Amino acid sequence: MSALQQYALLFGMVVATVGLALSLGVISRSLGRVRQEKAKDVPATSGKLSPDPVWGRYHVRYYGYALLFLAFDMEMAYMYPWAVVYKELGLVALLDMGVFLMVLFLGLLYGWSQGALRRQ
Amino acid sequence: MSAVLTVLMLLVGAYLVAVLEGWVSTGRLRPAGPITSGLALLGRESVVPRQPDRIFFEVAPPLLLVAALLAAAVLPLSPGLVVVDLATGALFVNAALAYVMVALVMAGWGPDGTYAMVGGFRFLGQLIAYSMLIVMPITAVAMRAESLFTTEVVESQAVLPNAVYQPVGFVIFFLAAMGVAFLPPLDLPTAPGELAGGVMAEYTGWRLAVMRLARAVLVVTLAAAISVFYLGGWLGPVLPPWAWSALKTLLVAAAMLLAGRYVPRLRETHVLEWGWKIGIPLALFNIFYVGVLLLVVE
C-alpha cells in the first residue's frame, strides 16, 4: 500500500466509527424519545444549579508543570528521528543528544529548586 | 481485510475486558453483562444537560473511540495482520493517544456540570504527568529497532524482549499506559465514589454506551501497545502468531485491571509529583542506558 492509501484507510476507519456512533444514536431514538420533565436536565449537582459558571470551580494548580511540559514535549519531536539513526551514528549521536538532554534535565532541576514542581 | 479482522479482534478484546473489569470490581463473573447492559443503555433516555457546549458534548464519545481505534490500527497482530504498517508507526501511536486527553477534556467541558468539569481538568493534569512517560520509553524502543515501523519493533525483539532488555522503560510505560486508560489507581477523571462519575457523569443512554465501549477498546489498545513494544508481540513458540499477540494482550490487560484492586486511588498532586520527580529522571536514564547498551553490546 502506498502512503496515500494507508491514510485513506485510516480516514475510512474514522468515518466508520463516527457512523457507528450515529447509528447507535438513531437506533436509540427509534426506541423512544427523551420525555420532557421538569429539572431533568440539571447536571449532577444534588439537584441545584450552580450559581457561578462551573469552570470557576476548578483551579488549574498544575500550571508550573504545564510550562515545563511544553519544553519537554517540543524536545521529544527531535528525539524520534534521532532514535532511528542512533545505531548508525554511534557515539557521536549519544554525545550530541546527551548534551541536549542534560541541558533540559538541568532545566528540570532548576525548575524543581524554584518550586515549579508542586501544587501552586 | 486486515482492517475488519483487527476491528473484530478489538471488539472481542473489549468484551473480555468489560467482563474482566466487572469481575474485578464487583467480584461476580457475568459473561453476558456487557451485552445486556449495552442493550439496556440503548433503550434508555439520553438526556442532554441544560446548557451544554453541544459540539463538545456530542463529539467527545466518538472521538475517544476514534483515538483508541487509530492507535490500534498501527499495532500488528501478526506479520501480515496490521491495518496500516506506517513508516511512522511508533510516533503515530502517540499522536492518536493524545486525542484521549482532548476527548476527555471535551467531555468534561461540554455538559457544563461541576463534577464533569473537575474530572476533565484533572485528566489534563494527569496527561501532563503521564505523557512524557509514554513518549520517552517508546524512543528507547525505537533506538533498539532502528525504525518506527511497529512490525520492525517486534522483529527487533526476536532474541530478547524489551521488557528484559530495558526493564525500567517497561515499568514506566506500563504505569503510564494505566494513566492513559484512566484505570483504577489513576482513575482521576471518573473517580467513582468521589466525583459521581466525573467526565462520564452527564452522559446517559447511547452516548454513555459509546463512551464505555471506547474506554474498553482503549484498554485493549494500550495492552496491545505494551505487548508490541515490550513483550515481543507475535513472537513465541508453537502457537500461531496471532494467538500469541492475543494472549499477551489479554494477559497485560488483566494485569492492568488487577493492579487497581490493590492500590488506593492516587491524588492528582501525587501523580504529578511522582511523574516529574521520579518518572522523568528514570525515563531519561532509560534512554541513556539503552544508548550505552546498544553501543557496547551490539
TrEMBL record, chain A:
Membrane topology: Multi-pass membrane protein
Main localisation: membrane
EC identifiers of the protein: 7.1.1.-
UniProt family annotation: Belongs to the complex I subunit 3 family.
Name listed for the protein in its UniProt record: NADH-quinone oxidoreductase subunit
Catalytic activities: a quinone + NADH + 5 H(+)(in) = a quinol + NAD(+) + 4 H(+)(out)
A Pfam family this chain is assigned to: Oxidored_q4
Annotated PANTHER family: NADH-QUINONE OXIDOREDUCTASE SUBUNIT A, NADH-UBIQUINONE OXIDOREDUCTASE CHAIN 3
TM spans (from-to): 6-27, 62-83, 89-112
Enzyme class: translocase
Localization in the cell: Cell membrane; Membrane
GO-annotated cellular components: NADH dehydrogenase complex; plasma membrane
A GO molecular-function annotation: quinone binding
Function: NDH-1 shuttles electrons from NADH, via FMN and iron-sulfur (Fe-S) centers, to quinones in the respiratory chain.
Alphabetic keyword roster: Cell membrane, Membrane, NAD, Oxidoreductase, Quinone, Translocase, Transmembrane, Transmembrane helix, Transport, Ubiquinone
Keyword ATP-binding: no
